[in-house]
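Student: I would love a firmer grasp of how sequence relates to backbone shape in proteins. Thank you; the sequence and its tokens follow:
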Amino acid sequence: MTRRTLPSLNALRAFEAFSRHGRMSAAADELCVTHGAVSRQVKQLEESLGARLIEGPKSRLRLTAEGLRLAGVLTGAFDEIAEAVSVARAEAPQSLEVSCIGTLAMRWLIPRLPRFVELHPNIRVGLTESHADVDFKRDGVDLAIRMSQSLRARDAESTVFLDHHIGPIVAPSLAGPVPLTLERLARLPRLHTRTYRQGWSEWQALSGHRLEPAPVDREFDHHFYMLEAAAAGLGVALGPWPFVMDQIADGRLVAPLGFIPADARYVVLRPAGVDNPAAAAFRDWLVEEGARMPRPG
């Protein structure tokens, strides 16, 4: 194999950047070096080649004929290298760690993940459950999914991907054969979750309805437990639409009073200023999935 005899790659990059911008300062900004460093690299390249590549006064430097020929070849070569690197990066296996609200992960995200895997087979997605404030360095995650109203994250880019609708949900056996009125609903056991104790108060404020105290209050550690308790007929719960839409569709739950929009929304967070193509792809996919989800009737 013939050994290539090439000048310094840094010198070639500096010269090619100058050839596109026409100014040493602009080339320096692109390469994140000083003006003087670009000038020295170009001079080093000229000495290595034994040819003048740039001429004219410092304020109006221009390429010589030799410089124009070399610049044309270098720009094409660097473009091909950049394209090859981009393709190799896209095809290489990538890991993506996502922190998500537990019930949203179980009821909404995981059932849709096969579509993401089909679109991006080289991205391996790991999921962890958390409601905590987001700290990317501490938690070792690339993305976090949270509710906007409880959002606490430093140096994060936030993207809304899903609206939040809430409404009372109950098992058909408990609702009975006739339409469930507000008065009858208030007489049912009322279910709560420790992670969202203000849910019923929020719903009353948003809907304008007022409920009398429940005859029985039952509280559960997690949202998922509460929703399963509602489906089992243990009482009426306040359900977010993304968590219960499938159970309503298959008849395990009914929503006698419908759903109303709440103030909070679901957001995906990623570290600000970090270039992570896998995280960007997952964020964009979440936005697309949120847009295609049916609205509550």
User: Anything to note?
Assistant: The longest helix spans residues 65-91. The chain has a mean pLDDT of 89. The chain has twelve helices and ten strands.
